[in-house]
Design brief:
With about 650 residues, the chain is α/β, with parallel strands linked by helices. It is built from 22 helices and 25 strands. Bound molecules: 3-O-alpha-D-glucopyranosyl-D-fructose.
Length: about 650
């Protein structure tokens, strides 16, 4: 498209909507300078469509309308974020994911819980899906039947708006999901498709017989092999097969249809105008399908994400995008955008590789696999960041590469078997009480369910009434949290973990949940139990206080902001892993002992700072440690960690 043509389209739409003059100049600059990029991205997807020009104009209109609708207070917030530089890299951010109903009852109760969260240090709130979803099975809200109506279980859109207000007043941030890949089969589009409406059948992938589904299933991995085998379901009413990669009630949206992208972009910008600060794009790896492939991580999926990102940058620039791509390590990296689109795809991604590797280290007392994988993880571009976490609402997948397992001398098959047995509750000698999830006998694949505390041994320790084991599990919980809180990126806690909730087996009584053991680690909070965080010496007190202290340390040292300033260390002890973070005139050594035994680390690790100091300041307990001779050792208790500051 010629410049003149593009600019004239943009000016015509803007003029007709009174978007002109000085007041709108920053927006117009963003629109004009990104117009070609939008056009280029969209044309890669749909240029062969007859009505491509109309589609492009409609997308522009949507972007302009969303800007017009943006509330002045949000425009101001956009500006403030812009002035902060890249606001989400800050060491001040700490998040928590929670289910509104299971944590607080409903949305109108949430503002009352903000003091509790702030006291812990949390200032970014991730609400698990709250938009309308069917009453029975709904995959915890990830089967959306209406993207604009808050489910009555949680309250109303007004409740959501007033929660956003309260957050904004307290300088806190809001994160919600857009479930982009699929809708519930109860969504209006699906309902119309089932009634035979061809227009809406084209919103999904529908087939008259099994010919194409059979061919496609040959290369598509199964996501939920136990509860929803295969990737297609038969719908009796429609008398057609429909693609349903996740559960059979979650129908995959057909993004080869530009109307689908338009409708989803519209929703995304609607969420942005609710004041959402971070938008979690659910399952982005799956949004484009092609025969003969795994239907994951395809180039077009990245194009869609880039298109969304550029649209958001123009219309509602304060909203950051988090891509929930839980895929192979190298593939996760691609979601930050490549080449021209570096830092213009997803601003944030889950550090799923690191998360799984911490569990690997905990189960084996061997950190070499974690260390080996850093060469990939450290490729993250400067300007994007990680969500670091030990647990979330999903299972733990052992998605790291076999290559590195071999490199450190293990047999990948046996190594994974061991991890599944140890963490998944199949080994009597293991302190962990988790369970296997998504067991696939065809591929021998399985993931792991269980809360942080139960996987760290607290559940079994309490059953055994062993004070020693209880203490050890608390140490493990804090070790795991410390590792992910101090690494570059935003730490995302999972509700309940902040005071050591063990597995909740009540889901087994609920037919809408019993088929999915991920519910064991999605507890219903008993607020009487949270009072125990004030009882000195209690498990809850120790876990909460320990976490609060770690968060405080992160927040009060800018060295923990994500400036790609992480350097992993050679510890010469396979149980101890550590990294050094450097910023301005400060260096912090973070060192973690993943072993149940005491360990030693030679002072050699600190050689680089000897010219500046003979002492290290331990931020964990405000003590000083003298740097000994090379041949002397710094001692670690089982599962102990150090956070050692040096000023230069
Ligand atoms: C996401 O999950 C959600 O986090 C899950 O809770 C949903 O069930 C799912 O999407 C469907 O909406 O797609 O890219 O083991 O790790 O399904 C990763 C399952 C996803 C999850 C995986 C994940």
């Amino acid at each position: 498209m010629k410049n003149s043509t593009l600019f004239s389209i943009i000016h015509t739409i803007c003029d007709s909507k009174e978007v002109k003059g000085k007041k709108h100049q920053p927006f117009l600059d963003r629109l004009i300078s990104n117009g070609h990029v939008l056009h280029f991205l969209l044309s890669q997807l749909y240029s062969k469509k007859e009505n491509f020009d109309t589609i492009f104009s409609e997308m522009l209109e949507l972007i302009i309308d969303s800007y017009i609708e943006r509330h002045p207070s949000l425009l101001k917030r956009d500006q403030e974020k812009e002035q902060k530089g890249t606001w989400f890299l800050s060491n001040d951010l700490v998040g928590m994911s929670l289910y509104v109903d299971r944590f607080a009852g409903n949305l109108s109760e949430m503002p009352k819980k903000l003091d509790y969260l702030q006291n812990l240090g949390v200032n970014l709130l991730h609400l698990m899906p709250i938009f309308e979803s069917p009453e029975g099975a709904s995959d915890g809200g990830y089967a959306v039947s209406n993207y604009r109506v808050v489910d009555k279980r949680f309250g109303t859109i007004e409740d959501l708006k007033s929660l956003q207000q309260s957050l904004q007043e307290k300088n806190m941030y809001l994160m919600i999901d857009i479930v982009l890949n699929h809708t519930s089969n109860q969504h209006e589009w699906a309902q119309k498709a089932r009634q035979g409406d061809v227009y809406y059948q084209d919103f999904y992938y529908t087939y008259n017989d099994r010919t194409i589904p059979d061919q496609m299933e040959k290369t598509m991995p199964e996501v939920f092999p136990e509860s929803s085998p295969g990737s297609f379901s038969y719908d009796e009413k429609m008398n057609k097969w429909v693609m349903s990669v996740f559960h059979n009630y979650q129908w995959d949206l057909n993004f080869t249809n530009p109307q689908v992208l338009k409708a989803m972009l519209d929703t995304i910008l609607f969420y942005a105008n609710l004041g959402v600060d971070v938008l979690r794009i659910d399952a982005p790896a799956f949004i484009w399908k092609q025969m003969g492939t795994t239907c994951q991580n395809l180039p077009e999926a990245h194009i869609i994400l880039q298109f969304i990102k550029i649209a958001v940058e123009i219309a509602t620039p304060g909203m950051a995008i988090l891509g929930e791509a839980i895929v192979a390590p190298k593939q996760i990296m691609e979601y930050f955008g490549k080449g021209f689109f570096t830092n213009h795809e997803c601003d944030l991604a889950y550090n799923a590789t690191q998360m799984a590797l911490q569990w690997d280290a905990l189960a084996t007392a061997d950190t070499r696999n974690m260390l080996a994988n850093q060469s990939v993880i450290l490729q993250k571009p400067l300007g994007s960041t990680w969500i670091n976490y030990t647990r979330c609402h999903d299972d733990i997948g052992l998605g790291f590469e076999d290559y590195y397992i071999e490199q450190v001398g293990y047999n990948p098959y046996l190594h994974r078997e061991y991890l599944k047995n140890y963490l998944g509750g199949r080994l009597i000698t293991s302190p962990s009480s988790g369970d296997l999830f998504g067991v696939n006998p065809k591929t021998n694949d399985a993931r792991i369910s269980g809360t942080l505390a139960s996987l760290c041994g607290l559940e079994k320790a309490i059953q055994k009434e062993s004070a020693k084991d209880i203490q050890e599990s608390i140490d493990k919980i804090l070790l795991m949290q410390a590792n992910s809180i101090l690494l570059g990126g935003i730490p995302m806690l999972f509700y309940g973990d902040e005071f050591g909730y063990t597995n909740d087996y009540s889901y087994l009584e609920d037919a809408g949940k019993s088929y999915d053991n991920r519910w064991m680690h999605r507890p219903i909070i008993d607020w009487k139990k949270t009072l125990k965080i004030k009882q000195k010496g209690s498990v809850e007190y120790q876990v909460f206080k320990g976490l609060q202290n770690l968060i405080q340390i992160r927040k009060s040292n800018t060295v923990f902001a994500d400036n790609n300033n992480v350097e992993w260390l050679e510890s010469h002890n396979r149980s101890i892993v550590g990294f050094k973070r450097t910023w301005e005139r400060k260096q912090v050594f973070c060192l973690f002992n993943y072993s149940p035994e005491p360990q030693e680390l030679t002072y050699y690790v600190f050689n680089s700072v000897r010219p500046y100091t003979q002492e290290l300041y331990n931020l964990c307990d405000a003590s000083n440690i003298k740097i000994g001779k090379d041949k002397e050792h710094l001692s670690f208790k089982p599962y102990q960690f150090y956070i050692l500051l040096v000023e230069m």
